[in-house]
Amino acid sequence: MGVSHADLSAARWQELSDESALDVARVIARENQLALVDVRGHDYAGRRQRIALFERDGRRFSLVPADRAALGYDGSRFVPSPQQADSYAESADEFGLPAITEFVDSMTSPQRVVELPAMLVAVDALDTCVTTAAADDPLVQGLMAGARPGGGAMTFGPNGNVKVEFDEAGQVRRARVVEQISYSEALEEAAALGVRPASPDEWEYACGAGVPTLFRWGDDNPDDGYPYDHRSGPHREPNQWGLLIGQDPYKHEWTTEPGIVCGGDGGGATCGGSGYFVGWLTLATAYRDEDFGAWLNSPDGYIDELLIRPVIDIA
């Protein structure tokens, strides 16, 4: 049975019976060399969605159906809560920022409507700077010689770019090598894995699932810490498509447009003590920091973590 993009519109996907949805998922799995993991209902931020999960080479993907999606954000319609207003007032006073609606508008992408095909989007981001090292790698063996039973991790190399994690018996659980690479090298690595980065439009839709609110869970945010301080909450939960995305502003993701990164600001607002609302704004679905994107692509930019959101185009 063939599957067209029209068959996979978001509305049609939700209207299908459970049996028909399972049939569609099986076709996607077969035609794209994937293992079907599950088709089930999923709840997020008061909304229920059917999701289909697949796996290939140990990486999990979720079906993101086609849609005519409204993306971006109009800062002029943002109505802050009293806590958000108070937090921003302090930030504006200290850093000379404009009115909150003007600032939100300047830090989010413009409103637009785009046609997006159905796609498979990775549940987790891929760090193209990290490669797995074998347990018998000389660098790993050097670490093992000094490892003490009881678990933990050790680093090796002049820049601490090799990290080996040990189990309680002192055996290697995982070894990783971190290397600074270029954006073009990241694209080559992704292509070798049969994936590509999400475009900015695809990233926004995959993150927010078309909801009109500032964040994918609504318009409000905690007022007692930055996202990094909160180890639980809606920003840490699988989103409406079952993706772990936009969880930590330090974990910004590159897109098909190297000057546009999504899901964070490299931790700049948090590290700079810019205020809780400003810090949380970096997780807004449509968040854009043009200056940060430009810096990453400048000679001064330093990259030791180049995350992308892998996408598989449905056959």
Short description:
The chain has 315 residues and is an alpha+beta fold.
Structure commentary:
The protein is an alpha+beta fold. It has helices at residues 10-15, 18-31, 82-95, 100-106, 138-145, 183-192, 200-208, 268-271, 276-281, 290-296, and strands at residues 35-44, 47-56, 59-64, 67-71, 112-116, 119-122, 126-127, 130-132, 152-156, 162-166, 172-178, 196-197, 253-254, 261-262, 307-308, 310-313. The strands form four sheets. The chain has a six-stranded antiparallel beta sheet. The longest helix has 14 residues, at 18-31. It starts with 9 loop residues before the first helix and ends with a strand. The relative contact order is 0.16. The model has no long low-confidence stretch (mean pLDDT 90).
Record keyword descriptors for this entry.
10 helices; 315 residues; 16 strands; four-stranded mixed β-sheet; 3 domains; alpha+beta; six-stranded antiparallel β-sheet
